[in-house]
Amino acid sequence: MPFAKHAPEPYTFMMLDWNPQGHEPPGAYDVPHFDFHFYWQAESEVMAIDPSDPDFASKANALPSGDFLPPFYILPIPPFLPPSAIAVPGMGVHWSDVRSPEIQHLLGNAEGWAEFTKTLIYGSWDGELTFVEPMITRAYLLSHPDELIPIPQPARYPKPGWYPSAYRITFDAQAKEYRVGMTGFGWHD
Length: 189
Prior knowledge:
- By secondary structure, the protein is mainly β.
- Helices cover 8% and strands 33% of the residues.
- It is built from three helices and eleven strands; from the N terminus they run ββααββββαβββββ.
């Protein structure tokens, strides 16, 4: 979905994905959920993320430097695999917050595991952060939440623009609408 002309820079479009069976990794995100990708790059660039591109692996394996990643964000892959092994065509490489309860069993902390309800993912491609992505389960939305969730912030941003400090999940009973949106925008160079 393209944004209106008055959308804050650097956002260009939003992509909504419905995953009725979820996706990998097992025991983390394998329940019905929605992915809300808010992109900072042109839609044509995102759609060009294709394994048939001879530079696919090198672009996936080019990671943002530490200052451009929020604290606690990791690639949820075994150390012997390159990032290109988890790069998603038409999206890029997905980064997870190491504190997220739904991935604790993957990190050897079975006691810290809790069922996935919502989480925030960052995405990268060719050395830059390119999107922020709330992932929210269908079950959690059906509970009609009204929640404001802080977004972990990097020390530096990929390009000057307005970046959110939180996202909000609400249900409007009168309109019978679920709403997921970014909020608390602040300018960052």
